[in-house]
Each structure stands twice: as C-alpha cells, then as structure tokens.
Amino acid sequence: MNHSDVNEPNRDSAQTPSEDPSSQDRIWTVRNVLWGIVCGAALDLFLVIWTWIQNDKGMADRCATELVMPIGMLWTFTLVASLLCFRQHARRFGVVFAILFVFISITGNGSVADASISELEPPRTDLSTLSEPLRCVVMLGGGIGIAYDEVPELGSAGQRIMFTAQLWHAGRTQAVICTGGSSLSPIPPAEAGRMMLESVGVPSDKIFESPGDNTSQEMTNLAAFFASPPENFPRDGKVGLVTSAYHMKRAMRLAADHDLTFVPLPCGYETHFDYDFSPRELIPSASAMDRFGRTLKERLARLVNR
User: Fold this and answer.
1) What is d(CA 247, CA 243) in angstroms, rounded to the nearest whole number?
2) CA of 272: how far to CAs of 112, 116, 204, 291, in Å?
3) Which candidate, 75, 49, 71, 76, places its Cα nearest to that of 61?
4) CB distance 242 to 137 below 8 Å
5) Alpha-carbon distance 103 to 109, whole Å?
6) Fewer Cβ atoms within 10 Å of its own Cβ: the N or the C terminal residue of the chain?
7) 38 Cα distance to chain centroid
8) CA angle at residue 45 from 39 to 47, to 5 degrees?
9) CB 160 within 8 A of CB 116
10) What does residue 304 show for φ and ψ, rounded to 5 degrees?
11) φ, ψ dihedrals at 69, nearest 5°
C-alpha cells in the first residue's frame, strides 16, 4: 500500500471545519461582536426605561432620540468597541476606546457643562443701583447671524440684542455702540446690530458703530472711539457693557487692559435652572459639548492673555 494513501485521510480529517483554528477564531470574534452589541443595546434600553420610570414617557422619547444622534451613537460605539477589544485581548485598543468613552461622557455631559460654565458667569447686575441713565451701552458683536439671503437674524447669543433694546426702551441708556467686524460676512456684526436695533425702535442717530474682528480688537477700537467720540455722542455718565454672561469676565479683563471702565451687564445666562435629575442627562449631547468647548476657550484665552 502506498504511504501517501494511508496519510491522505489524516490530512482530510485535519482540515475539517470543526477543527480549523481560523474558523474557531472567526466564530469567537462573531460571538464577541454580538456580545458587545448586546451590551451597548442593553445600556441604551436601560437608560430609556429608567428615564420613563424616573420622569415620563415624553422624556423617555427624548432620551431615545439623544441616543440615535451622532454623539449618542458615537458614545455607545466607543463603549462597545472597548468591551470588544478587551474580550479579544486587544488591550491597547481597548484602553484607547475606553479613554474616548470617558472623554465623550465628560465633555458631552450637560451637568458637567453647566458646572463649568457657571464658574465663568458673574451675577446679574442690579439695574436699580444705577441712579441715572448710562452714557451709552456697548453691545459686543456675535449675537447676530446672516441668513442665506443676507438678512440679519438673532443667533445663539441674540439675547444681547434683546437686552440692549430693553435697556434703551426702559430709559437706562442715552446711546448704543454696536461692535464687530468681519472680512467674511457681507454684513459686519456692528452694522447687523444697528439694523436689528433700528427694527425694534431704537433711533438711528443714537446708534454708533465700532469695528473689531475679536474681543481684543474691539476693545482697542473702543478705546480710540472714546478718546475722540463723535460730536453727537453723549458726554456724561457711566458706560455699560453688554455681552454673554460666560464671556463677561474676559471682556472686562481686556477692557481694563485698555484703561476702559464699564458697568458689566451680562445676559444670555447658560447655567440651567436646577431641574429634577433625569437619567437622560447621562447621555452626551452636542449642545453640552458646545457649552463645554466655549468655557474651555475662555480659560485658554485667559492663559494666553487674549
């Protein structure tokens, strides 16, 4: 008998799928992937049910919506990927995904964003302490966006416009200075601010403009404006500064660097009212990341004295 004939069955037996190591690895990988997906789905379902029990169905619907948003899906994915990597003994990748999961969980958490931004927002100024109308109110640019058809519209910081108009109509100020310039926008922020204020009844001859592409430049130009104001500009009284509450400390610091003294008039507070806890708050969101990012920007600006 030929020796090759004797050994042939053994080779066939060694190559059976049930004993193929690569096949076993693929089965193990598929099981781990399914296990990771089940863990991620279980977490998401748990949060939705917990929100329903803790709050109500409407809040649970919002919770489910947050989970299918890009940030929510990325959050779940990093958790699943981390668990899968650890199961597959790819510990380095598991650590990387775990770090990403924690990073998204912190920077996208609404409570963390609120706590971070609340440290920057000063108390609201009591206007009753002002014995006479302000000489003027400086409204920093940034509260208006330009729509596709070049029509100015209130942006996320639009409370600056509203608050400034309220001050004028309440007789709290004699004039308004709108600041801001841009090489990209067809309508500079200062001009857009004028247009908005005129549309709500602030007289055109009481509105003045001062350019500046950022807060530092705005303060430089304001210093030049006050050093040589127009003839029809009010001469007496204090000057108020209107900007978003989280931005006020940096604006006042830069104003002091230019020997400008303002009455701080913060508005557009972003520290949320202390509502009852909802499990939905544990899910990262783009809005929370935006707030966290802006507070980080303010702190970085302080480090570099900008």
Assistant:
1) 7
2) 11, 12, 35, 11
3) 49
4) yes
5) 10
6) N
7) 31
8) 105
9) no
10) -100, 10
11) -75, 160
Burial class of residue 276 in the structure, from the number of CB atoms within 10 Å of its CB (0-12 exposed, 13-18 middle, 19+ buried)? exposed
- Annotate 47-74 with b (16+ C-beta within 10 A) or e (fewer): bbebbbeebeeebbebbbebbeeebbee
Show the CA angle centred on residue 243, arms to residues 239 and 244, nearest 5°: 150
- Which amino acid, 77? F
Using the structure block, give the residue that is written with the tokens 């775990």: 98
Phi, psi angles (nearest 5°) of residue 278: -130, 135
Q: Are 237 and 174 within 8 A, CB to CB?
A: yes
Only one residue has tokens 């912190």, namely: 106
∠ CA 164-294-100 to the nearest 5 degrees?
155
**Which residue is listed with tokens 């790819």?**
90
- Going by their DSSP bridges, the two strands 152-154 and 144-146 should be labelled as antiparallel
- Token pair listed for 128: 């009753």
Give the H or E element holding residue 61. Answer: helix 57-68
Q: Which two tokens stand for residue 101?
A: 């999961």
E strands in 72-140: 136-139
- Crossing angle of helices 21-54 and 57-68, in 10° steps, is 150
